Amino acid sequence: MLTFTVRRLVLAVPTLLFISLVLFLLLEFAPGDPMAQVPLTVPPEVKEKMREALGLGQPAHIRFWKWLVQFFWIEPQVLVDHIFGTSFSAGDLRVISWQTRSPVMDIVIQRIPQTLWVVGTAYVVGVLIALPIGIYSAYRQYSWFDQTGTFVSMIGFSVPPFFSGVLVIVVFSVNLGWFPSIYDTTHKVVDWDSFMIQLRQMIMPVMVLALQITAQISRFMRASMLDNLNQDYVRTARAKGLGERAVVLVHVLRNSMIPVVTVIALGVPSIFGGAIITEQVFKVNGIGQLLIGAIQANDLPMVQTLTFIFAVLIVLFNLIADVLYGLLDPRIRYD
């Protein structure tokens, strides 16, 4: 397993380099100009100097190489300097946002806690709810619980977050007045009272995201459990006198989790991207809203860095899913 993990990590390097090149070329040929939002009163020669200051006057391959050096070499040095108090990156040019003229990674690090508060909590809540629902729905197939779960899952799949988000705002914020309609990103948790305020403003966006996560994972869990409940080893385990709890929660559940692990692992990066709409609806000042603002402002360094971070998450959680396969099923060996 260790050899497989090392081999996959080494293979991830050229994969990520290729992804970064594709992202750069897509953004390079995409329509839009960072000078489009400059007032028309600015003379053309001034605009040209501004373009040169942003590095747009250089050839594409030079700009791509500079971004690679800045992201893979200088930014890790900045992190080391921040942790250990060294000065390896002193004087080096970092990836700079065209919109704010600030280092891109500094802005991303500022926004990540807001996204993790909402998206991370929603994903954990969604998984913890979805797994028991899927297990019990499969064990009690066609019962009222199974039919209710199927109905709720269909709603979760069908209703987009821009509709469900507005709906919960109208019901729970406007009509009932239980929760705030706008997420206060400046709020800091310092004591129990401030934690309760944070919890109240998280409930609605977490509810919207968790509904989609629960609907997806519970259906996968149910289908996987049904497939394994009819296998010969289940009948053999029951014939040997094993208790029903041991048969379902040990033997069937462990084998059923193998395909579900893929859905859970690969769902982590996708939920970060899917939370963009939810962050817009509830005004959560997180990664999703940052990406939308960067796209609207043609801030290519910010867009390229954020999309590449999403790609890194996908590659990383693909590896985590493969490693978990071997832990869940001893028959799987990566030799």
UniProtKB/TrEMBL annotation:
Single Gene Ontology BP annotation: transmembrane transport
Recorded topology in the membrane: Multi-pass membrane protein
Main location: membrane
Pfam families assigned to the protein according to its UniProt record, in alphabetical order: BPD_transp_1, BPD_transp_1_N
One GO CC term on file: plasma membrane
Gene3D superfamilies: MetI-like (1.10.3720.10)
Signal peptide annotation: none
PROSITE patterns per record: ABC_TM1 (PS50928)
Transmembrane segments: 116-139, 151-175, 195-215, 257-277, 308-328
Keywords: Cell membrane, Membrane, Transmembrane, Transmembrane helix, Transport
Compartments, as annotated in UniProt: Cell membrane
Record's keyword annotation contains tRNA processing: no
Occurrences of domain ABC transmembrane type-1 (ranges): 112-321
Similarity annotation: Belongs to the binding-protein-dependent transport system permease family.
Protein name (Swiss-Prot/TrEMBL): ABC transporter substrate-binding protein
